[in-house]
Each structure stands twice: as structure tokens, then as C-alpha cells.
Amino acid sequence: MGTDRISFKGHSIVSCGTLRMELESLRQSGFLDADAVLYCAPGLHEWPWELEKHLPRQLLRAAQTSPRIIVVYGKKCFKDLKHPARETDALIQETVGNAVRANASNCVDMLMSLEEREKLAGSERVHWLTPGWLKHWDFIFKDWDTGKANEMFPYHDKAVVLDAIGYFDRLMADEPEKILRISDWMKLPINAYPVSLERLKRLLRACIDTNSVSDGTEYVRDPSETTQ
Fold this sequence. Notes:
Rossmann fold; three-stranded parallel sheet; 2 domains; disordered C terminus
């Protein structure tokens, strides 16, 4: 069987909206034929109390549609402010018992591994982004003031968008002022680095390759990786 000839029938996917464009591209290509793909609002890691409500709601919707669920959220995307050891996996386990989470730390890690990012960055300190961050920038950072931004971003040398869908080039052509505005606010130059969706596909495929789902969330490692 070819590597792309895999069916996601019998599975629903629950994902952060930050990766919506990439997942929809996989649906349009025919790779992703899941029963349903449900999204939470992008960037809810900024408001963990909201993610704590939205993610279980979508998981329960997915459970009504399919016997198995694939969760496209990073391990660190949710952290309980009162109980820091309670992270994404705990939130999933508390809600459903038939979920498999793709093994990545965050949405950036879904597109390029840490080892690859470190190699690409070299000696530079890079703030990594995905297209969804640019698209939803005003929403994700609506509660940030200039002081908080100045604490976070200038530590880096530049921002790099890992772009598998050509979004950065389209935005540069259609709304260059948005990129300039974000760059000015971050006080960092922003450029794009073209990637493929192969890593995301491998992570999703690895979830399917898990033949049984235990009571609780299974953690599925990308078979091409030795470390994350």
C-alpha cells in the first residue's frame, strides 16, 4: 500500500484552529478523509481557562461521531495555572478514553522537528511561527500590551514562518502592511521558510497505525524520529 493510501475513516480529528489551513489542505488533497475535523479557536493556550472548556466540548462532539479520536494539539498547549503538572494529556484523559494525541510539543513542532529547527537556526535565536499565527495574530495577541511584547520577542534575532501552504507569499502580495505591522510590533524581521506537510502527515498516520486505544490518551511518536 502506498504511503498516502491510508484511510482515517472511523476517526474524528480535534485540532487547534491554528493548524486549520494545513489540515484543510490535507483534506482537499484527499489524504485526510476523517469522519469529521473539529477545531477549537486558535491560540487558546493564551487563555488556558478557555481551552479547558473548548477542547473537552469538541472532544465530546467528536466522540458522538466516531469511535476513535485524533487530537492535533501539542503536549504543552494546555497548562493548568493552579496545577502546572496538569497539561494537555490530562485534559484529554479526563474527557474521553478513545483519543490518540499526535506526539508534538506544539503546532510548530507539527511541521518541523526540534532537531530540524535547531539545524536551520544555526547560531541565531529564532521565534518560530506557523501561518495560522499570522492569520489570527490580532486575536491571539489581543491581550498583550507593548511591554509584554518587548519582554518576549526582542530576545530573538528574527521570526520565521514555517509555511507549507504558500500563505506567507499570498499575504505579502495581498496585505504586505499586515506583515510589516506584526514585524514592527515584534521588533523582529519576519521571513518564511517553505516546508512540506510530510511531518504532519507522518504524525497523523502514526495515530492510525496504533491498532488499539487504551483507557486514556496514547502518545504516538513519529516513527521517523528518535527524539522530539
